[in-house]
Every structure is written in structure tokens, then in C-alpha cells.
Amino acid sequence: MLPSTQKYLLEKIRHTELSAPVAVIATEQYQGIGSRENSWSGGEGNFFASFAVDLSDLPKDLPLSSASIYFAFIMRQTLREKGEEVWLKWPNDFYLGVEKVGGVITQKINQTLICGIGVNLKNSSNGFKSLYGDILAEPLLEKYLKKVEEFPEWKQIFSEYQIEFEQSRRFSVHIDNYEKSLQNALLCEDGSLLIEGKRVFSLR
Predict the structure, then answer these.
(1) Strand ranges (DSSP E) for the chain?
(2) Domain extent for 36
(3) What is the pTM of this model?
(4) SS3 content of the chain, % helix, strand, coil (to 5)
């Protein structure tokens, strides 16, 4: 159990006690970091993990501002291979139908990018639903990291995500403390959006 895999890894990297590449997983967490400084916590059986990669290992064509989309979509691919019909709502939330089941957050420290992922595998928590299958956290992390280590190009990930983005149009996002509909948003090739003439980056 950890308060937060993300906070734990951030501190270890910051104090040079650990270095990339490295990953940490917890059976439970109770002070996890979510989007817009919300918490993401939950009980045993769910997925709580963070990993660190060196910026030099990332695909050359990956816009750093869209790292959350990139790593979230790879997890979405991994979960699909496990039989879960999960899709990625822009920019970093996992959905099953119209229900949120998890999310991703990325943070940069010097030349290291730290990515935290939370998915409700077994138990509904944070007011959100859980998946229906019988997926175990540690094997999921192993499978996911193997896919990450291939570091597919951003254009490959984006070409698939571009199609899936259409599902996000039913929803809205919070921008500068305002809720904005994605109905007429334009998804740009770098993963940013044009909403009402304003460019919006994921930065999560």
C-alpha cells in the first residue's frame, strides 16, 4: 500500500534515489493524484502504478504536451487485448461506455517523464465504475510495459486515436475552470484541440 504511486516515484526521482526506467505498483492507494489536482484512490484489486522514462527514449515525433494521450492509448490497447471495450476520452480518461473507469497523468522532472495510471479493475471507487473482467494488476502492468518499451511512433498512435476521438464529442472538458463541450472541437495532429478558436493542450 502507498499513499500515491505517483508521489512516491516523483520523490524518489527528485532525490535521485531511483532513476528511469523504473516502475512501481501498489495494491492500494489512498492519496492518488488525478486530473485537475483531484484524488484517485481505491481499494485492493484495482490498478495503481507509475513508471518513469527518460525523455531521450520517447519517440522523436511525440509532442510532450500529448504524453498523457500517448501512454493512455497504449493502456487502452492493452485493455482491449484483454477483452475490455475501454475507450479513451480526450485527453486522459478511460471510459467503458459512458462511465469513467480510470485515467492517466504525466509529470516531467528534468529529463524524466513520470506517468501514473489508475484503473478500477475490480471495485468501483472515486464515484466511478469498474471493469467487468477478471484482470490482475501485476500481469497487466507487465503486458503494458512491454508495449510501452516498443515506443511506437506518435503518428501511429494518433492515427488510431483520431478515429476514437469522435466518441469524446458527447462529453465536455474543464478548461481554465470552465466546462467546454467537445461537440465541435477540432483535434489537431499534435493532440491539442481547437475549441471556440482557442488552442487547448492536454498537459496532464
Answers:
(1) 22-26, 47-54, 86-89, 93-96, 99-109, 112-119, 172-175, 178-181, 186-187, 193-195, 198-200
(2) 5-152
(3) 0.91
(4) 30, 30, 40
Q: 203 in a domain, yes or no?
A: no
pLDDT tens digits for range 15-50: 999 999 999 999 887 654 545 444 555 567 799 999
Counting Cα atoms < 13 Å in the Cβ hemisphere of 45 gives 11
Task: Write out the three cell numbers for 83.
Answer: 477483452
Q: What is the CATH number of the domain that holds 86?
A: 3.30.930.10
Instruction: Tell me whether residue 198 is in a domain.
Output: no
Rounded CA-CA distance 204/201 in Å is: 9
Q: Which residues pair with 39 in a beta bridge?
A: 33
How many domains would you assign to the chain? 1
